Amino acid sequence: MVKPSASLNLEIPEQGTELDPAEARHPHGLAVLAVLLAATCWSLIGVAYRLILDEFDVSPLTLISFRTSTAALAMMIYVMLRPTLRGQIRGVRSRGQVIPLLGAGMLSITGFNIALIYTFEVAGVAVGTVLLYFAPSIVALGSWLAFKHRITRVQCIALGLSLCGVVGVSGVITGGETFQVAGIALGILAATGYASYSLVGQFLLTRYHPLVVVAMSQSVGALTAWTVKLVVDGTSIPGFTAIAWMVGVTGILTTLVPMVLYTWGLSKLGPPRASLLTTIEPVLAVGLAFIVLNETLTVYQLGGGTLVIGSVVLAASERVRR
After folding, report:
1. pTM value?
2. Contact, 132 vs 169, CB < 8 A?
3. Cα 93 from Cα 135, distance rounded (Å)
4. Per-residue pLDDT for 93 more than 60?
5. Which range marks the domain in which residue 205 is found?
């Protein structure tokens, strides 16, 4: 689920794609539809994880390994077929270039995906998806601390809403149980890993094409995921049916398809509008978790989730106005 970047347009504050004024006033209907479809695909990932893990004898780490491998292989094939992009990959030599790419792959891809799938296991799909939307606030805070980017008044309000929302989702107000505390910690860890992709990407995108960054970081992430899987789970590989479901559903339907749709829609609408549209993802994910998995949220958790999502809408709306 790393958008190009996967489930929340994590732009660095005060940066973004400039649109032609006429295009900004009249966003293309197909582009809006593409972004909405991408968000719908991303909303399926939590339910897909749970159903596959319940149906087949596979571990979460095995599932993550096949998912990241599918995305990495497809992206790398595409990049290698384009001479200009292939040349950028061959040009990666210095330590200053390799280390950020390793960080993006190992932390922002593998670390994020592992934390996310275990958040779904411990706290549930609904809670895990909502907590992931804490990532934009982490990006804004991290950009301020690391790169001295100015935080606007609206972003400060959004950050405050996010923090209050996380408290509500955690169940602390109603005396949440121990498992929920562990789940919240994993969820925040996943959001931090996801946010780190945007922060590291600021450095990488000044040197490489976005598709090269995605392809190389996904490849490093896939290799790291398989290494962790082999160390923890051993060399056991599931049957063909299980592999087909993992590749087809988590690798293609909830990763590659939305990545293509979102990238095209993003190019037409710009980051602010695209990120605003993707806020339907947690709403759909919570609804699916309720319908398919019988997950329920308390009133306080629903209120906290509303605050978290509202903070993203508020920040994105400010960018649209600007």
Report:
1. 0.82
2. no
3. 31
4. yes
5. 44-152+178-267+287-296
